[in-house]
Amino acid sequence: SQKIEQNSEALNIQEGKTATLTCNYTNYSPAYLQWYRQDPGRGPVFLLLIRENEKEKRKERLKVTFDTTLKQSLFHITASQPADSATYLCALDHSGGGADGLTFGKGTHLIIQP
Amino acid sequence: GAVVSQHPSWVICKSGTSVKIECRSLDFQATTMFWYRQFPKQSLMLMATSNEGSKATYEQGVEKDKFLINHASLTLSTLTVTSAHPEDSSFYICSAVTGANVLTFGAGSRLTVL
Looking at the DSSP assignment, which residues form a beta bridge with residue B48? Predict the structure, then answer.
């Protein structure tokens, strides 16, 4: 069966360090992968999208990699700040196109400690 | 940027009553909106795709008579939880496509059924 795995345990990182979150998937061949940020009691907010033919994508302090051979995406936040504390969700497109084909992982709760 | 407004942000109701949640696209038109449900520490689960001017498409296992969706205009979709029961208590979130396969989410509605 299709699965998206994100580390369900909270990730504690010291302020200023790089936080790395992992998204692994099985039995998918996604055309693209997305990362969203979700704060408690709020809806997710889109951060980055990376396509299957892209190895890496950057946006300010954020970097996403996508390895279709390993079936894994890594999400990095450099120079992390307490304000980066949130739950980060990865989402895969499994329909070949269209946002209705997005399936979300459970998310990883990131805590940046001052 | 595009904004999706969701109302109410939280609602408490008695078992057996119906609750309506509104999702509006501000400054853009959304022919398609999506409704998700999220339980604590769980992933977003797509409930249905709301299509302006036509019937909603429900995901497997979601009761269409229980969760009524109406998308009467290009800027408004509503979700009505009919005869709500405590097990319907959850966080309901709507979204619309605002970029190439990118979703913009509402802030969510916390439903508590007593």
Answer: B35, B58
The 10s digit of each residue's pLDDT in B13-22 is 999 999 999 9
Tokens of B87: 């097990």
Tell if the CB–CB gap between A46 and B103 is shorter than 8 Å.
Answer: yes
Which residues in chain B have their CB less than 8 angstroms from residue A105's CB? 43
* Cβ burial, residue A90 (10 Å; 0-12/13-18/19+): buried
Nearest by CB to B101, from A32, A36, A41: name it.
A32
Non-local (6+) Cβ contacts of A73 within 8 A are A22, A23, A33, A35, A50, A64, A65, A66, A67, A90
Is the Cα torsion angle B7, B98, A56, B38 positive or negative in sign? positive
B90's tokens? 């959850």
| Option in B99, B106, B108 nearest A41 (CB) | B108
A90 min Cα distance to partner chain B (Å) = 10
Condensed to tens digits (0 to 9), the pLDDT of residues A73-103 reads 999 999 999 999 999 999 998 665 555 668 8
